[in-house]
Amino acid sequence: GNSVTQMEGPVTLSEEAFLTINCTYTATGYPSLFWYVQYPGEGLQLLLKATKADDKGSNKGFEATYRKETTSFHLEKGSVQVSDSAVYFCALRRDSGNTPLVFGKGTRLSVIA
Amino acid sequence: GAVVSQHPSRVICKSGTSVKIECRSLDFQATTMFWYRQFPKQSLMLMATSNEGSKATYEQGVEKDKFLINHASLTLSTLTVTSAHPEDSSFYICSASGGFQETQYFGPGTRLLVL
């Protein structure tokens, strides 16, 4: 079946450090891939997405590239800020917008000044 | 972006009572809504998919008679936890989708504690 595996946290970084959160997936066909972020006390927000191989999603300095050969969608940011502290979820969606997302377990990021 | 609300945000109830959670899409019509459950430090697990005007499709292992889902309009879906027990304590999250290529928007979640 479809599944998403992401690195376990928590991840603690100093401000301006480089961030990588690994995500790999197992799926049939060609899923769309997503990163969602959940700030404390808030709902999940879409951070970025990619719908086909070699696509790069980017937003707010974060980026991730859809790598079909390695079935990966690692999240990166060159210089994190304290405000980036949140839980990050990698997810896939097999078909259309009317099909549910399959989530990884989430990775908690804490950025300290 | 689009907004999805949930009410209540937090509820504490006694064992054996029923609890209703509302999920509303505030500025778009949601043809499909999803209900997820999240345990501490765990991923979101899909409970059911709800299409407006039709019966919800439940995931394997989710009791449809215990978790009643109603999607009566394009902006509202409700999840009722019937005869709640302590093991039903969890974080319940809904999401809404407007169509084929639409992004899913998530509500802020409802934390249920059954005593």
Describe the structure.
The complex is a heterodimer of chains A (113) and B (115). Chain A is an all-beta fold. Helix content of chain A is 0%, strand content 50%. Chain A has strands at 3-6, 11-14, 19-21, 23-26, 32-38, 44-50, 56-59, 62-65, 75-77, 86-93, 102-103, 107-112. With 115 residues, chain B is mostly beta strands. Chain B is built from no helices and eleven strands. In chain B, strands 2, 4, 5, 6, 9, 10 and 11 form a seven-stranded mixed β-sheet that branches. In chain B, strands 1-3-8-7 form a four-stranded antiparallel β-sheet, with no helix packed on it. The interface between A and B is medium-sized, with 22 and 28 residues.
Topology, element by element:
The complex is a heterodimer of chains A (113) and B (115).
Chain A: E1 3-6, E2 11-14, E3 19-21, E4 23-26, E5 32-38, E6 44-50, E7 56-59, E8 62-65, E9 75-77, E10 86-93, E11 102-103, E12 107-112
Parallel strand pairs in A: 2-12
Antiparallel strand pairs in A: 1-4, 3-9, 5-6, 5-10, 7-8, 8-9, 10-11, 10-12
Chain B: E1 4-7, E2 10-13, E3 19-25, E4 32-38, E5 44-51, E6 57-58, E7 67-73, E8 76-81, E9 90-97, E10 104-106, E11 110-114
Parallel strand pairs in B: 2-11
Antiparallel strand pairs in B: 1-3, 3-8, 4-5, 4-9, 5-6, 7-8, 9-10, 9-11
